[in-house]
Amino acid sequence: MPSLPQTHSFDLGGLRLASGEGRRLDLAVPVDAFELGGELYPVVGRAVQARLDISRTTGQGYALRLRFSASLEGPCMRCLEPAAPTFEVDAREVSQPGEGDELQSPYLDGGVLDLAAWARDALALALPATLLCRPDCAGLCPVCGVNLNDAGPTHHHDPEPDPRWAKLADIRFGPDGGV
């Protein structure tokens, strides 16, 4: 797809669609970075190449579909190595004025669609709870902090003695076995 100019918002009224008509547009939409766990995760390229499907419904309404894929870059939440996972987004909105709050899109105001806000919110809903460098990331060793992805399966530590038995180590036995 060729490079497209960035579009924060789009005036749907300018399309002059009649009821039942639709359009498909390819747009570059900027997406603000996410702050997760105190770390910043910007979108690779700062914008996504998105496909917007617009259909005019009866009355003054619209049915909208936004599709794109986006990669976030930042530290892996398990091993802290650089990560750039990619997420597929397929979001839909319906705006049918006068038909109730559930049919009012928060991204459409006076015929102008806030694409940047919709794309960011849709991506936020597609994100998993943890962003990883790879799906099977083993993380860091809780004892020494080594990256377990590099350390291999032989990495281990002898278990610490149970603190409930620590006083037994203070018992000193004499030469005849008595205390």
Summarize it.
By secondary structure, this protein is mainly beta.
Question: What is the element layout, followed by pairings?
Answer:
Layout lengths: L8 E3 L10 E9 L3 E3 L2 E3 L5 E10 L5 E10 L2 E2 L6 E2 L2 E10 L12 E2 L2 E3 H12 L21 H4 L28
Explain how this protein is built.
It is a single chain. The chain is mainly β and 179 residues long. It has one domain (9-136). 9% of the residues lie in helices and 32% in strands. The protein has helices at residues 115-126, 148-151, and strands at 9-11, 22-30, 34-36, 39-41, 47-56, 62-71, 74-75, 82-83, 86-95, 108-109, 112-114. The longest helix is centred in the C-terminal third of the chain and has 12 residues, at 115-126. It is elongated, with a radius of gyration of 27 Å.
The coarse silhouette is: elongated
Largest sheet: 4 strands, antiparallel
The number of distinct helices, counting runs of at least 4 residues, comes to 2
Order of helices and strands: EEEEEEEEEEEHH
Order of adjacent strands in the largest pleated sheet: 2-5-6-9
| Structural class by sheet pairing and helices | mainly beta
Mean pLDDT: 89
Proportion of residues in β-strands: 25-35%
Keywords:
179 residues, mainly beta, 4-stranded antiparallel β-sheet, 3-stranded antiparallel β-sheet, 32% strand
